[in-house]
Amino acid sequence: MKRCAARFSPRRQGVQVLYLRNVPGNRHQRRRYQIDGIFDCDYEAVDPDSDGVPVSSRRTQLSIHKDAIPFAPKRGDKVQVGKEEFIIANYEPDSEFGIALILRK
Q1: 34-38, 55-59, 80-84, 90-94: which has the minimum mean pLDDT?
Q2: Separation CA 33–CA 64 (nearest Å)
C-alpha cells in the first residue's frame, strides 16, 4: 500500500476518475464516465458490530457524491485512477450525500 500512497500524495486526495461500466449485451465494450472523488489507498475501517472488541482493517476506497454517476454503483464495475484500474468489490452509502466504493485490484 505504501507504493500507492507514494503515487497519490497526500494519502487522501481529490482526483478525477474514470468510472467504467460494461455495456449490456456486449461485455467487451464499456461506457466511461469521468467523475471526481476522494481516493484513499490506505483507509482504516473500524467494525462497530464487533461486540466490544476493536476490529479494524485497511482497504482502498474511493468516496464519491451520490450524484456523480447517473445510476447506482454495481459490484464488478471498474474505476481507473491514474493508470491503475480497480474493481468495485462493494459500496457503502453514507448518511449524507456520499458513497464509498470499496476497491480491489
Answers
A1: 55-59
A2: 13
How is residue 70 annotated by DSSP?
S
Q: How many CA atoms lie within 13 A of 23 on its CB side?
A: 6
Answer whether 99's CB lies under 8 Å from 64's CB. Answer: yes
CATH of residue 24's domain is 2.40.10
Range of the domain at 25: 2-104
Residue 4 parent element (H or E): helix 2-7
- pLDDT by residue (tens digit) across 17-76? 999 998 888 878 889 999 999 998 866 666 666 666 666 567 799 999 999 999 999 999
10 has pLDDT over 70: no
In a 3-state reduction of DSSP, which class is residue 7? helix
Domain count, the chain: 1
